[in-house]
UniProtKB/TrEMBL annotation, chain B:
<dbReference type="InterPro" id="IPR020542">
    <property type="entry name" value="Asp_carbamoyltrfase_reg_C"/>
</dbReference>
<keyword id="KW-0862">Zinc</keyword>
<feature type="domain" description="Aspartate carbamoyltransferase regulatory subunit N-terminal">
    <location>
        <begin position="6"/>
        <end position="98"/>
    </location>
</feature>
<dbReference type="InterPro" id="IPR002801">
    <property type="entry name" value="Asp_carbamoylTrfase_reg"/>
</dbReference>
<comment type="similarity">
    <text>Belongs to the PyrI family.</text>
</comment>
<dbReference type="GO" id="GO:0046872">
    <property type="term" value="F:metal ion binding"/>
</dbReference>
<keyword id="KW-0808">Transferase</keyword>
<dbReference type="InterPro" id="IPR020545">
    <property type="entry name" value="Asp_carbamoyltransf_reg_N"/>
</dbReference>
<feature type="binding site">
    <location>
        <position position="138"/>
    </location>
    <ligand>
        <name>Zn(2+)</name>
    </ligand>
</feature>
<feature type="binding site">
    <location>
        <position position="135"/>
    </location>
    <ligand>
        <name>Zn(2+)</name>
    </ligand>
</feature>
<dbReference type="InterPro" id="IPR036792">
    <property type="entry name" value="Asp_carbatrfase_reg_C_sf"/>
</dbReference>
<protein>
    <recommendedName>
        <fullName>Aspartate carbamoyltransferase regulatory chain</fullName>
    </recommendedName>
</protein>
<dbReference type="GO" id="GO:0009347">
    <property type="term" value="C:aspartate carbamoyltransferase complex"/>
</dbReference>
<comment type="function">
    <text>Involved in allosteric regulation of aspartate carbamoyltransferase.</text>
</comment>
<dbReference type="GO" id="GO:0016740">
    <property type="term" value="F:transferase activity"/>
</dbReference>
<feature type="binding site">
    <location>
        <position position="114"/>
    </location>
    <ligand>
        <name>Zn(2+)</name>
    </ligand>
</feature>
<dbReference type="InterPro" id="IPR036793">
    <property type="entry name" value="Asp_carbatrfase_reg_N_sf"/>
</dbReference>
């Protein structure tokens, strides 16, 4: 069970918390039907103030596969947020309709604040450039399935500054015996607060501006998208982004059993020819969101009491 | 307090905050939320010589005894400050500021994307970390020039 009632950041997760969820997710994946009635009547509120495909649909499906239902706030344009309602008021209202709230919001710290205004569990499904801890759980599940979770070298590449999946993953990996290599342009290095967490946790960290030198020693390569809006002009963006793309040819330099992951959506950073290689695990990774989020919901909704 | 160079007289009752880092007296008042509207007698001395600090400020607030929790937030900008509670011209209690675990509603978060800078009914909150403070909401760490982030009433 989680030590806390909400899932706000990956830093709150201990190794035991993570392993409990991942173990249960594996049980669910092996026999999903056994959980079909486990949360009959429970309602999960989906509050997405930003677009989402995978996270929203997998939480929606996860709740339904546990026998529950979901209620969707809809888009910001169609909700009372458009009339100027605060997030604090919005979640206080929605708390009355649901047993748990999944929240994605453009402001960093939004999930923490929301959790202070409600008594039902809040799951942070992305707070601006902050954290995305449920993604991290499915990332860890995928890593564990493919490479184990100890004595590994993991490369995390792309937009490390604004990438919330990166921040959560880096924090969570400090629970394991893992060497973390961060590969990014200088302007998109890890933010100060994540560096602080890694330093405090005594993590084994190295930073690189190029993938080439470190690729051969990696067991896992986690690629993220570099976004156009992070750069002042198109040509600068194209120049930089082009340096952090991988294709099948490049991966011939990697270990044979390298696992390539990506939180998706990808644009150009992983060439389609990688999809056919044994390295490509990003679609499997997205699919793992379902059993992992079922396990997470079961944990936060009090599965042990049922 | 018997320094012949002392520029203001003793107070009868209240609080004397001594050994404030030179130039921080106005920030001290700002953090304490004292702006004159309370009609308390307030005296400040700034940038006077100090053996300990080189230059120091002194803040005297008449007829108000500041509590330890009120003054502890001063540790952010005046870690050497001493607090003297005065009753009938005598120092009845002398303490130092102690670093609190969190500071609420005093500093503003420099991250424009932080929820505390949105239109939400929430006070800022910072935890004290190794060499600075950290926003309890977005995690932003402030190390330098804390006084620039003071957002007291």
């Amino acid at each position: 069970m989680m030590r806390q009632d909400h899932l706000i950041t990956a830093t709150q997760l201990s190794r035991a918390d993570i392993e409990t969820v991942l173990d249960q997710a594996a049980e669910i994946a092996a026999d999903p039907q056994a959980w079909a009635e486990s949360h009959f009547g429970s309602v999960l509120a989906l509050c997405f103030f930003e677009p989402s495909t995978r996270t929203k649909m997998s939480f929606d499906t996860a709740m339904k596969r546990l026998g529950g239902t979901t209620t969707d706030m809809g888009t910001v344009e169609s909700s009372s947020v458009k009339k100027g309602e605060s997030l604090a008021d919005t979640v206080r209202v929605i708390e009355g309709y649901a047993d748990a709230i999944v929240l994605r919001h453009p402001s960093e710290g939004s999930a923490q604040m929301a959790s202070e205004f409600v008594d039902v569990p809040v799951i942070n499904a992305g707070d601006g450039a902050g954290q995305h801890p449920s993604q991290t759980l499915l990332d860890l599940y995928t890593i564990r399935e493919n490479a184990g979770l100890d004595d590994l070298s993991i490369g995390i590449m792309g937009d490390l500054k604004y990438g919330r999946t990166v921040h959560s993953l880096a924090d969570a990996l400090t629970n394991f015996d893992i060497r973390q290599h961060f590969i990014s342009p200088e302007s998109l290095r890890l933010p100060r607060n994540v560096r602080y967490d890694l330093h405090e946790a005594g993590a084994q960290v190295r930073e690189h501006t190029e993938l080439d030198g470190v690729l051969p020693e990696l067991d896992v390569l986690y690629v993220t998208r570099i976004q156009r809006e992070r750069f002042p002009d198109e040509s600068e963006y194209r120049k930089i982004a082009g340096e952090y793309q991988i294709d099948a040819d490049l991966l011939s330099e990697a270990k044979e059993n390298l696992t390539v992951m990506h939180p998706l959506p990808r644009v150009d950073e992983i060439a389609p020819d990688v999809d056919k290689t044994t390295h490509a695990k990003y679609f499997e990774q997205a699919h793992n969101g379902l059993p992992v989020r079922m396990a997470l919901l079961d944990s936060l909704l009090g599965g042990d009491d049922k | 307090m018997s320094d012949r160079k002392l520029r203001v007289s003793k107070i009868r009752n209240g609080t004397v905050i001594d050994h404030v880092s030179g130039g921080q007296a106005l920030n001290v008042l700002s953090i304490l939320g004292i702006d004159g509207s309370e009609e308390l007698g307030v005296s400040i001395v700034m940038n006077v010589p100090s053996a300990q600090l080189g230059k120091k400020d002194v803040v005297k607030v008449e007829d108000r005894e500041l509590s330890q929790s009120e003054v502890d937030v001063l540790s952010l900008i005046a870690p050497e400050a001493t607090i003297n509670i005065i009753r009938d011209y005598d120092v009845t209690r002398k303490t130092r500021v102690e670093q609190p675990e969190t500071v609420t509603g005093i500093l503003s978060c420099p991250n424009p994307g932080c929820i505390t800078n949105g239109n939400e009914p929430v006070e800022t909150s910072f935890s004290i970390v190794a060499d600075g403070v950290r926003c309890s909401y977005c995690g932003t760490i402030i190390r330098d020039s804390l006084a620039d982030h003071i957002d007291a009433e």
